[in-house]
Model the fold of this input.
Amino acid sequence: MKIATWNVNSLRVRLPQVLDWLEQNPIDVLCLQELKLAQDKFPIDELREAGWDAQWAGQPTYNGVALITKHEAKDIQRNLPTYEDPQQRAIAATFDTPAGPLRVINLYCPNGQAVGSDKFAYKLEWYQGLTTWLKTELERYPNLVVVGDYNIAPADEDVHDPARWEGEVHVSEPERTAFQALLALGLHDSFRLFPQEEKSYSWWDYRRMAYRRNAGLRIDHILVSDAVKPATVACTIDRQPRGNEQPSDHTPVIVELDFSKIA
Done:
């Protein structure tokens, strides 16, 4: 089973790229963030015509998340039950696998804007609500995968220029502490379970030719639970879509799971 996460930064703009990528990449679940579409504007007809189904939580102009899949999605949860928030930032579903139910949670975590700002405080509060929720989700669903745009680079190796970014949003100590609190629940950064090329990133600013210079951050992550870790056989970043014409500033991250190892 392959699960991918991709912040598309407007599905209306990037839908042709998403459909092309799905055609070229045989995956089971694609988790999208930053749809920037109202609930009734989601392109479900186009996706079904291409052979896919979807569950989504839309919001005009900002945010929005979706699960695009060829498998039946059950027990849908939209938004954090532990943090009241009008912004559409989370969607979860359960899928049948040979190893039992697999819970997939797709997140678009707050950006934070700037350290010390109101939006930064909101980000940390939201992460506290997320941590509380994931603790209960792990109790209900030992087979758990949590994907998305976390807007946190967990370590200096995930930052193209740690000295320049020191203390800034995405890499600040409070944010990294919040990320570590998720791992402490019994989750694992699947990308770091395997040897990876140095300077591997998932996001590059549109400005200052950042992609061409590979001046990026790794802020899109796929976390797997203790129970799923033995089934995790690969995690990769697909840089190709970032080189498209009119691309998202993020690119897909893909995890591959082999449930025969735990079934």
